[in-house]
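Quick one, tokens below. Sequence please?
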């Protein structure tokens, strides 16, 4: 079952005895666990019939023992095991799946990874309970996810604002929703969310961020790129070298991919680069300014400065100084 189907089953009280929620993306696992804990039993029923356990504190046998108990003054008993990835003996759950307690709803939250479905325990889960896998979204899917989230909540956001949020926060859906919730508390529904609003309410600069740095480098706007990198150097806590290097590597990698595309139409290029079609023109412009040979040197620079940021062949230059050196070399590759 997918996320929406499980939410629908909770709403309709059409529930199965066991749900195994797993995967690298914790956002949907947490959302489902909260939905189970808040919406299956009434507040009065929860007092005697709902138990929250934590994988670090128990063994699987304890969760099974709780699941086997009968409800008191209610039709259902809810047992939720959070952080179940810490259970060392999770496969003991096999024995319970062979003989579940029908009046108990057992929810296992197995975050950060997935059980191998090819192995015995994985096959047992697939055949005897509801398995939900929450997969990590690729970076290129984040802008569309933000747009969907905003639209579903009745708000509007422009493409630049979406890009700034995606670049600044990354693929952490929980962090993204936290920031979006802040915005939706202060922005009117008939008012479009822009980079200016993001800067004012969240503190992400509309002019000084990795997204704008990439744009400046792609267009070889030397003055703008240097202004941005000087701002980064003056605010190192907000612009650490490691994520900046990662973002630049990903950016120039996409430019290289664009060079080798046979079909450079916006739709085809967007699919190959895994970006929103709105941004394809930026890679097209960058490809005009950076040849394959220049990109080869840039990747060498990125590798060199990644090592220097970790102390390899660098005894005195600060991270801020390293970024300035790197940007200079990229612009003059």
């Amino acid at each position: 079952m997918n996320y929406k189907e499980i939410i629908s089953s909770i709403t309709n009280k059409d529930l199965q005895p066991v749900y195994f929620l797993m995967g690298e993306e914790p956002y949907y696992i947490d959302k489902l666990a909260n939905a189970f804990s808040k919406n299956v039993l009434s507040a009065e029923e929860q007092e005697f019939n709902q138990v929250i356990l934590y994988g670090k504190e128990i063994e699987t046998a304890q969760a099974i023992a709780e699941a086997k108990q009968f409800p008191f003054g209610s039709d259902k008993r809810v047992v939720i095991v959070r952080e179940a990835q810490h259970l060392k003996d999770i496969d003991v759950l096999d024995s319970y799946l062979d003989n579940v307690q029908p009046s108990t709803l057992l929810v296992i939250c197995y975050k950060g990874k997935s059980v191998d479905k090819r192995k015995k325990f994985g096959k047992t889960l697939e055949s005897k309970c509801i398995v939900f896998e929450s997969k990590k979204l690729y970076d290129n899917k984040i802008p569309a996810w933000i747009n969907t989230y905003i639209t579903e909540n009745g708000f509007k956001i422009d493409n630049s604002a979406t890009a700034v949020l995606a670049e600044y926060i990354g693929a952490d859906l929980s962090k993204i929703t936290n920031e979006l919730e802040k915005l939706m508390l202060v922005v009117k529904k008939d008012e479009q969310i822009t980079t200016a609003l993001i800067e004012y309410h969240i503190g992400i600069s509309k002019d000084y961020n990795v997204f704008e740095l990439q744009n400046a480098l792609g267009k070889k706007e030397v003055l703008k790129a240097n202004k941005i990198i000087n701002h980064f150097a003056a605010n190192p806590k907000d612009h650490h070298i490691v994520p900046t290097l990662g973002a630049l590597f990903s950016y120039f990698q996409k430019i290289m991919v664009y060079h080798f595309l046979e079909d450079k139409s916006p739709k085809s290029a967007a699919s190959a680069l895994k970006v929103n079609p709105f941004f394809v023109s930026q890679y097209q412009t960058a490809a005009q300014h950076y040849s394959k040979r220049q990109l080869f040197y840039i990747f060498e620079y990125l590798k060199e400065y990644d090592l220097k940021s970790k102390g390899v062949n660098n005894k005195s230059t600060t991270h801020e100084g390293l970024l300035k050196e790197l940007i200079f070399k990229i612009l003059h590759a």
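The mean pLDDT is 91. The first helix runs from residue 3 to 11.
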